[in-house]
Backbone:
């Protein structure tokens, strides 16, 4: 990478963790481009995630998610918001590891209250069902993340600033 090309920053975390909002803010602060993987899929498929799940099924969506993630490997200077389930496949985890992948960590109860009534999220189920999914996924978020941000009690701006600080430390250490 030359002086002007920098690694992408990839935000991961459960549904409701603010990946989209925080990635937009971060991209604006760093003068990076912003990509939301769910938006990319919806644009390319010309339909909503909800409809994709309902009509084609989850496996079809996961396959598209992997294809998009593979393609994003050749991009630079992007802040990328992923979908909460991007860590479900071993291939995706392999692609995320060794990138500037940041896990936005929240308590389950906080997330649950944000997403419980969101009919646009096909993975949303009962409290127990979501909690099981959350508990199953934690290990994968942790496995993929280079950094974990403890987000509880922090604002979007505070979280963004924390990521920016990590990012400037990384760039200083790599000699940029
Ligand atoms: C999913 C999360 C969603 C979206 C899809 C599946 C998941 O993204 O990718 O509905 O499996 O957790 P958000 O995390 O932005 O809600």
Residues:
């Amino acid at each position: 990478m030359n002086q002007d090309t920098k690694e992408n920053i990839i935000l991961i975390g459960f549904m409701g963790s603010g990946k989209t909002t925080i990635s937009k803010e971060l991209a604006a602060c760093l003068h990076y481009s912003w990509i939301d993987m769910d938006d990319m899929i919806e644009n390319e498929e010309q339909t909503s995630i909800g409809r994709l799940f309902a009509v084609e099924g989850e496996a079809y969506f996961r396959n598209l998610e992997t294809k998009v993630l593979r393609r994003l490997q050749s991009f630079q200077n992007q802040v990328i918001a992923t979908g909460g389930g991007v860590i479900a496949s071993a291939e995706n985890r392999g692609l995320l590891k060794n990138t500037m992948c940041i896990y936005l960590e929240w308590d389950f109860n906080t997330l649950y209250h944000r997403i419980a009534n969101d009919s646009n999220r096909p993975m949303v189920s009962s409290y127990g069902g979501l909690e099981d999914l959350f508990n199953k996924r934690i290990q994968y978020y942790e496995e993929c993340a280079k950094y974990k941000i403890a987000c509880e009690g922090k604002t979007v701006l505070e979280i963004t600033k924390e990521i920016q600080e990590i990012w400037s430390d990384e760039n200083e250490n790599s000699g940029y």
Q: What stands out?
A: The chain has a mean pLDDT of 94.
